Amino acid sequence: MTLDFPMVLRCEWLKRRRSFAGWLVLGGALFTPAIIIAVRLVQHAKLPALYANPAFWPSLWRSAWESMAMLLLPIAAILATSLVAQIEFRNNAWKQVRTLPLHPATIYAAKLAVILVLIGQLLALFSVGIWLAAAVPWLFVAGVPWPSDMLSPSFVFAQNARYFVDCLPIVAAQYAIALHSRNYLVPLGAGFVAWIGALGLLQWKYAFVFPYTYTMLDYLGGEPAGKVTVPAIGTAPYALGYAALFAVAGYVLFATKRQKG
Amino acid sequence: MHCLEVNDLVHRYRNGDVVLDGVTLRIPAGSIYGFLGPNGAGKTTTLRLILGLIALQHGAISIFGLQLAAHRIDILRRVGSLIESPSLYDHLTATENLALLQAVHRVDEAKIGDVLDLVGLAGTHRKKVGEFSLGMKQRLAIAVALLHEPELLILDEPTNGLDPNGIVEMRALLTRLNRERGLTIVISSHLLAEIERLATHVGIIHRGRVLFEGTLDELQRRRRTHVALATNDDERAIALLARQSIAATIADGRIVMPAMPNTAIAQVNRRLVDAGLDVHELHTAGDDLEAIFMNLVSN
């Protein structure tokens, strides 16, 4: 498996060329920054005071992450996972993939890696988008100072890593369902129901037992009012535990599927 | 030597229906093996089992002398396949489709151009596979199957949906591959005429059982011959023949008699002419392959 993996990953990465994946990453990452830019250009009179605020960057970061953590990241994880699995179903290509001289674990891991890279791209591009949400109004509106105390790269990386881990259980669960369902509506429907369920459970003190809640809990846990209950050990151990569980279960289902193509 | 051996395959659907009932096949190396049977006979299930696409319930499969269950990956490195409709990525070009597998099979990049040339798709350039005709897709699927220079090619109904010209081209390509590269080809079809023109060996399957397996010559030796006769008064001719204890019947507007030596045929002719009948046609005829196939299947 180890020797084949880079080749198979390259092969899987090529498959998403000219698919919806690129637009998903681009749209998901730049949607919120674009809205922030538009709002700030419309309300340009308030910008000098806003940009002079020493808490400009933390404030921008949190406001941008609100829609990302609550909506865009879970939905992007659901869509990206369905998309990658559906490439084979839509093209009737599972029988070709399954007759390649590869171990099922290699195929499973390579496709999962492609989804994770797409999520990583989304987060990286979103961080660039947040920076653009500050820079574009500054460029176009005269008299606006460049905001001080920019967020450090290590902070940005740590935050992205945290949210990346938070969405792993969603990816792993959706991947297990998507590989098993020829009908793309099944994983999408299950994902949306789970996401709505997670929103509904947020106020519950044991919301952290539900694996689709972690991006939301992580974001809302930082609110001063303490709207939600975050476990003392944080969400990461739960997220990693669920992700491992779903990934193993998904692999067992994939490897033992009766009809392999 | 056998390239592929299948022993006593039994396969049941979940509802208990038996799809394959003790299928045993011996496919010689270097042959073009026509796997023939009506729709629903069990051809695709057999080929899917051979490729490991369905879990084996009973029996054994050995390819290149290796057991499939224990050496699946080693075997698949030497096998190319096309099962039912082509498995291609419509949003990619022909070259990109091949590049995916070139990475996995680790073959030289130049091979992509070679196989595209071989199947006549070298000029497709930036055209996406989704814009290809079915014939072009079938040819590209063959190119995909050939990219890693397999020793065994398994094709399930590869001429499905092809126009007559496409069928002729496909046949010419497969014959060339077999002759020039010594490639063993297993090709399933429900079209007898197709197999007759292409195969060196034939396996006939019906309702999950193998009814015949052997060379095309052996199958043709099963031809049942008869003597066909046409006269200006067939009813009277049959009455005259009956008096000579020759069991004659009328079929397809002709009198059909059992096979007989040439001297007996001449005698029949003489007697009919002597009786004042005009003989328009008198010759020995045999079942065509279709009739042999139908006899096997209907029995």
TrEMBL record, chain A:
Keyword presence, Membrane: yes
Chain ranges passing through the membrane: 20-43, 63-87, 108-141, 161-178, 185-208, 228-254
Pfam families attached to this UniProt entry: ABC2_membrane_4
Keywords noted in UniProt: Membrane, Transmembrane, Transmembrane helix
The protein, known as: ABC transporter permease
Organism for this UniProt entry: Tahibacter soli
UniProtKB/TrEMBL annotation, chain B:
Protein family (similarity comment): Belongs to the ABC transporter superfamily.
Entry keyword set: ATP-binding, Nucleotide-binding, Transport
Molecular function via GO: ATP binding; ATP hydrolysis activity
Originating organism: Tahibacter soli
Record's keyword annotation contains Transport: yes
Protein name: ABC transporter ATP-binding protein
Domain ABC transporter, residue spans: 4-232
Keyword ATP-binding tagged: yes
Higher taxonomy: Bacteria, Pseudomonadati, Pseudomonadota, Gammaproteobacteria, Lysobacterales
Database matches in SUPFAM superfamilies: P-loop containing nucleoside triphosphate hydrolases
Pfam families referenced in this protein's UniProt entry, alphabetically: ABC_tran
